[in-house]
Amino acid sequence: MTESTSPLALPFPAMPAIDGVALHVARAQYKTWDRCDLTFVTLEPGTVVAGVLTQSKCPSPEVEWCRAALTLGQARALVVNAGNSNAFTGSRGRAAVEAIAARTAAHLGCQPSDVFVSSTGVIGVPLPIDKAEAGLDAAFAAAPCGWEDAAATIMTTDTFTKGAVTTAVIGDRTVSLVGIIKGSGMIAPDMATMLGFIFTDAAVEPEFLQAALSKANAPSFSCITVDSDTSTSDTVLAFATGKAGNVQLADDDSVGADAFRAALADLCHQLAMLVVRDGEGAQKLIEIQVTGADSDRSAHRIAMSIANSPLVKTAIAGEDANWGRVVMAVGKAGEPADRDTLSIRFGNTQVAEGGLALSGYNEAPVAAHLKGNEIEIGVDLALGEGRATVWTCDLTHGYISINADYRS
Amino acid sequence: MTESTSPLALPFPAMPAIDGVALHVARAQYKTWDRCDLTFVTLEPGTVVAGVLTQSKCPSPEVEWCRAALTLGQARALVVNAGNSNAFTGSRGRAAVEAIAARTAAHLGCQPSDVFVSSTGVIGVPLPIDKAEAGLDAAFAAAPCGWEDAAATIMTTDTFTKGAVTTAVIGDRTVSLVGIIKGSGMIAPDMATMLGFIFTDAAVEPEFLQAALSKANAPSFSCITVDSDTSTSDTVLAFATGKAGNVQLADDDSVGADAFRAALADLCHQLAMLVVRDGEGAQKLIEIQVTGADSDRSAHRIAMSIANSPLVKTAIAGEDANWGRVVMAVGKAGEPADRDTLSIRFGNTQVAEGGLALSGYNEAPVAAHLKGNEIEIGVDLALGEGRATVWTCDLTHGYISINADYRS
Q: Could you tell me if A122 lies within 8 Å of chain B, comparing CB atoms?
């Protein structure tokens, strides 16, 4: 996979160290490649954790492991393997996760359930335990590294490293929130990213962290799609070390609760956008705003129907203001819609209104908008107050090239 | 659109004339192209009609016209326009359909509601009434033509003409059933083709014809998908002239009812397969068989999830036995599935069983199967008795090329 960097790439931001978090990377050589592919993150005692995981009915053993461990709410380590998702590998896959957790727990002197494990890559090949153990031992001995090294180590078909940072003021303390994430195919509704990891020094009750993460997930990771394909491994975990020394956030009435939630939502939004910007073959980032729907849920479904339509996505790739395909995608969503009240815009220019093309609309600003790499499609149904915004990318030859020859 | 012929093309069959049906084609010049684009079919008095139409919430005025006319159950003419779907064109689109029906009715001395109208092509451009009327006048004056000329005239991005034929014995008579159809993008569940027209000389009550067509539609047109995008114009109409002189089919107890239904189902299956064989960019026809599901409905949804997965379709394009993507598509369907009982085969070779890869399965027959152009994927869930079979094609660079530059 030597794809060139996405034209939508953003530079990796300056990200502060998070007190209580130490990063290490190593070479497990899950594939024959010249790069680190195992990330080992240590978390000081007292770290709490929350997570959102794939809705797939066929999840990886890592997802099942994390789902169980999340019920305890505490974490001492995170291990991420790149190059092999370990999904659909039966008891051998489960054994690999257990071995990684056990070895890490022995090294740190904690419980295996304090160790979170994620893997990403090809499905159906059991993660080789010997490589994982040798990689772990190398990571245990490695000097700490920075965020961008860790972000690079969790990548698979990603073309650029992805990180985001924000802060929140809680009482008299400023806490930091940072995240790293990877895509970039098999990205779809119901927890859309593959692997994302968020770290904060805030002191926060795990229940509050979970509620805040679940709420932040809804308009971010759950509102992006690259190809409508939902991964068996989708995972976002948020770790809070508590080292900032703020008065612990426990519920909605805690001082700074709103600020923390807003910061977490902002961070999730930033990370989700990075995933779409690195969608396989993406040349354009597409924001789809649906208003006037019967309900927010209905608006979301219509927006996702547009975002997942191959014909809409190829039209945008071709810089073609083919709003007829948007009508088609509204029509197929199965949600309440009235053809004769529907309005559509590209960028700020209305192109169809009240059920038909606006004759003589100015095509120049539409053409200029479509030549850019951030496209906005607005659909108003004029039925109710429901609204939703989702993000996707265009469908190009690059997607076919990447995916018609991935495993072989 | 000068795409080369699909490698999955079949030759146009020898199709008999149907007594009571006369075909004519003409140039309405809906686009600037050197071909006929208006098809005019006359049907002798006494012809009955049935139809299945798109489930889109934003249908074309032609679909609405046909839906209303179908309630009367009789037909004297069919007019098909190619190059402009007339969908999402407001009152001007409705006026165009009314003008076509009125002019044809005046010519034949029948009611406008006896005239069925279908259009296919770009969405959002009102069908020009002057061109339609001039085209109709030319068609009224034209000498009758054969089935392949009509099949060619209804095409848009299709790369080959599509027709099918069968017969049924009803009492002492043999009746003929023929059909022509066109695809080839925007093909998806809920009445999957764009335009298909079936003609028979059988004598049949319209209610029986409708019931037989609806039943034949379920496992044929409703079980194919090219790109998951449902057209605003999907239409299949079946016309029966009654000229064969059989004792009229009226209900399930009529002599020959089973034979007629079986023949109609066979014809619909043939036509549906032709649409998939001409799916935009298709290089391979893919049959997906799901067994052991919780119910037939659940099996259908899982099969369609596989058939619509860009990652499955690109893997097949790359001749890659990437069954992990099949697992992913099962998992995202949201239907009951147990990862640990799932089995998958390509062709006749099991590649995964009981939740994990079959170690040491023979890759040679799988590789040979995937190099062919008719691919079979079998998924057994081992949960119940539900089963479904659906058909799709692979996703290739050809699809992107065709659709990233269609309208402009």
A: yes
Q: Nearest residue on chain B to A335, judged by CA atoms?
A: B57
CB contact under 8 A, B357 and A325: no
**Residues A10-35 pLDDT 10s:** 899 999 999 999 999 999 999 999 99
Residue of A nearest to B88 (CA): A356
Boundary residue ending a domain (B235, B261, B277): B277
Instruction: Residue B394: give its domain's CATH number.
Output: 3.10.20.340
Indicate whether A408 pLDDT > 70. Answer: no
Question: Where residue B77 sits, what CATH number does that domain have?
Answer: 3.60.70.12
In terms of DSSP H, where are the helices of B252-317? 257-277, 296-307, 310-317
End-of-domain residue from the set B277, B299, B323:
B277
Residue B230: pLDDT band with limits 50, 70, 90: low
The answer to whether residues A210 and A173 belong to one domain is yes
Do residues A330 and A225 share a domain? no
| Residue at A8 is within a domain | no
- With contact defined as beta carbons under 8 Å apart, do A267 and A176 qualify? no
Instruction: Please report whether residue B47 resides in a domain.
Output: yes
B246, B306: one domain: no
- Domain assignment present for A132: yes
- B positions 339-358 inside 8 Å of A (CB): 339-340, 342, 352, 354-357
State the complex-level ipTM: 0.76
**Nearest partner of A170 among A256, A98, A236, judged by Cα:** A256
Beta bridge partners of A323: none
Give yes or no: residues A297 and A263 share one domain: no
Q: In what order do the strands lie in the sheet with B163-170?
A: B48-53, B235-240, B195-200, B173-182, B163-170
Range of the domain at B378: 285-403
Domain count of chain B? 2
Co-location of B236 and B315 in the same domain: no
Instruction: State yes or no: is A47 an active-site residue.
Output: no
Q: Is the pLDDT of residue B163 over 60?
A: yes
Interstrand relation of A356-357 and A173-182 (parallel, antiparallel or unpaired): unpaired
Beta strands in A15-162 (DSSP E): 21-26, 38-43, 48-53, 77-84, 115-122
Chain A hits for B322, CB-CB cut-off 8 Å, are: 123, 406-407
In 3-state terms chain A splits into helix, strand, coil percentages (rounded to 5) of 35, 25, 40
pLDDT bracket for residue A184 (50, 70, 90): low
Q: Within 10 Å of residue B109's Cβ, how many Cβ atoms?
A: 9
Q: In this structure, are B144 and B254 located in the same domain?
A: yes
Asked if the structure places residue B265 within a domain, the reply is yes
Mutation test of the interface with chain B: which of A190, A353, A400, choosing the one with the most B Cβ atoms within 10 A? A400
Q: How far apart are CA B240 and CA B248, in angstroms?
A: 11
* pLDDT-wise least confident of A21-25, A248-252, A398-402, B17-21: A398-402
Annotated active-site residue in B120, B156, B193, B392: B193
Distance between CA atoms of residues A280 and A395, nearest Å: 8
